[in-house]
Amino acid sequence: MTSTVQAPTAHEAVLAWVEQTAAMTKPDAIRWCDGSEAEWKELSSRLVSSGALVPLNEETKPNSFYARSLPSDVARVEDQTFICTKTERGAGHTNNWADPVEMKQTMSALYDGCMKGRTMYVIPFCMGPLDAEDPKFGIEITDSEYVVLSMRIMTRMGQAALDALGTDGDFVKCVHSVGAPLAEGEQDVPWPCNDTKYISHFPETREIWSFGSGYGGNALLGKKCYALRIASAMAHDEGWLAEHMLILRLTSPEGKTYTICAAFPSACGKTNLAMLEPTLPGWKVETCGDDIAWMRFGEDGRLYAVNPEYGFFGVAPGTGWDTNPNAMRTIEKGNSIFTNVALTDHGDVWWEGMTKVKPKHLTDWKGRSWTPDEGPVGGEPEEKAAHPNSRFCTPITQCPILSDEFDSPTGVPVDVILFGGRRASTIPLVAEARDWNHGVFMGATCSSETTAAATGKVGVVRRDPMAMLPFIGYNAGDYLKHWVKMGEKGGDKMPRVFYVNWFRRGDDGSFLWPGFGENSRVLKWICERLEGRVEATETPAGAIPTEDGLDLSGLDVKGDDIAEATAFKADEWRAEIPLIQEWLDSFGEDLPTEVAAEFDKLKDALA
Ligand code: GTP
Ligand code: SPV
Ligand code: MN
């Protein structure tokens, strides 16, 4: 084994932990990642030679690669994701809990020798700008080159992060292994992983242990594991918020800029809204982030949002020139990794929704020859060419509408918070909260149909508080209480809260609202509400646009679709009450009284 003597740091705790992890996992070599171009070239070439990556067409996707995972390793594994706190209450009723000592015993047995035949990479990284007042560092140890390459896109990593950490800085210890040791001379497989998977978090000691999966959310530990689960626990202790939110800057034709943060569950539209191309003339959107927002109070008492990430790990299907042209422009610049999409005969990528006309021939995400009429050879004609949770991993700096404020160490002042989900009925297109606690209630009771971003059934309605159900790193009751307390602290300087639903459906099953760029019409209404320029109709579920409230100029929609999309329907809300009741009851004594009081108001108003 290569010793750590040449380690590019004098940080004692880092060195000791790297030694200790190597002693447990027993890699053939240890490699400290510097984040250089040369390192990217070397590791990507190695994966191309071994067949793990396919280089894409240099003309259309320069310096980009294609990966196919095993069909059993395509999404986050919520069933195998654990919050390990001393008491079961610490993790709360929405998480899988395990005793930290027992979990470490279980996983140590799995980690024992798990990196044999492989290199152990040490990836120093920083979530958020390196020049932040309180930069949040992490070090990920992994035996996957795919993870190293992806972390280089998704985070600020390498020697610069290690230098900024200094010799005694705090860091989150992140251990990852695909769990597939190689015997002497054994040939590697394209996607090493293990049927046994554990994604474990130790919020009390700020550690992450991941085993068995190579998929993004399970393996790129800076993302969901650190920047949401561990960071939400840090944020609770330190008085800030770590949220599953996009951050966008919207400028009106008069030149006024608003910051909007929006929490939608996985695969429910954050990336698309973050890069929206407004259909309304004169409005401009700039992107700060598409998945995670860290929000802290600034000196002026307002909330400021920072995107801790450095890349997009976006849902590929549905991304096209007509839906999200800015994402298309971002990936066109190359330097990206595509996973589980389809491959064209020209060495480019394709997925459902990219183009209206499907290519005549593709290689599908399972590596089978595929045609639009017949589907894959040996499969069913209706099988999609790309997996529904196939993803592009691409540098955020390539986004043509990236905000100048993206790199700001203090972030951007938040004017509006949106909650949303994927609901075929009940939830109107847009509704404004009466005040902060009503907004917290909206977030707390937010619900959505499940998507392919996590393993399990798709299309089942579940409550997803603040779009954080899979990502709250501690007790969900304490989390809601923290939201209430943040409002008490921020008072009238807190952002205004709205609840949106782009996914309401008509009797024929089709979406009532055109979505995508047309969502700018809803954002305009929200800005007008902020300016006190537009009236609204009060309903028990919040204030909704009046009949002529939304700017629909130039919008071609059929019949009463817009009226149906925006409607508050009391009977549908009455049917929702028992579902909300059941959800809030599940918190038991941990439910904040403020949230219970808002529910009482809703029930009274509907009675
Ligand atoms: P994660 O990365 O999993 O957190 O997801 P996300 O919230 O960023 O979701 P994303 O923007 O990638 O959207 C997921 C899917 O929803 C894609 O297939 C989009 O095409 C679709 N979608 C996004 N916005 C809209 C919309 O306004 N209307 C409709 N009908 N579909 C949308
Ligand atoms: C999500 O599932 O919400 C994602 C993708 O953003 S992953 O990083 O894999 O969790
Ligand atoms: Mn996400």
Essential attributes:
binds guanosine-5'-triphosphate; 9-stranded mixed β-sheet; alpha+beta; binds sulfopyruvate; kinase activity; binds manganese (II) ion; 3 domains; 607 residues; lyase; Phosphoenolpyruvate Carboxykinase, domain 2; Phosphoenolpyruvate Carboxykinase, domain 3; cytoplasm; 6-stranded mixed β-sheet; 16 helices; disordered N terminus; Phosphoenolpyruvate Carboxykinase, domain 1; globular
Write the layout of secondary structure elements.
Layout: H1 12-25, E1 29-32, H2 37-50, E2 54-55, E3 65-67, E4 81-83, H3 88-91, E5 96-97, H4 100-111, E6 119-127, E7 136-142, H5 145-154, E8 156-157, H6 159-165, E9 171-177, E10 198-202, E11 207-211, H7 216-219, H8 222-238, E12 241-243, E13 245-251, E14 257-263, H9 270-274, E15 284-289, E16 293-297, E17 303-306, E18 311-315, H10 325-332, E19 337-339, E20 342-344, E21 349-350, E22 362-363, E23 369-371, E24 375-376, E25 391-395, E26 412-413, E27 416-420, E28 430-432, H11 436-444, E29 447-449, E30 461-463, H12 476-490, E31 496-500, H13 519-530, E32 536-539, E33 542-545, H14 561-566, H15 570-585, H16 593-606
Parallel strand pairs: 1-6, 3-19, 4-5, 4-10, 7-9, 9-11, 14-27, 27-31
Antiparallel strand pairs: 2-3, 6-7, 6-8, 10-11, 12-16, 13-14, 13-15, 16-17, 17-26, 18-25, 19-25, 20-21, 20-22, 22-23, 23-24, 28-31, 29-30, 32-33
The structure holds guanosine-5'-triphosphate, sulfopyruvate (SPV) and manganese (II) ion.
The site of manganese (II) ion has 3 residues, from loops.
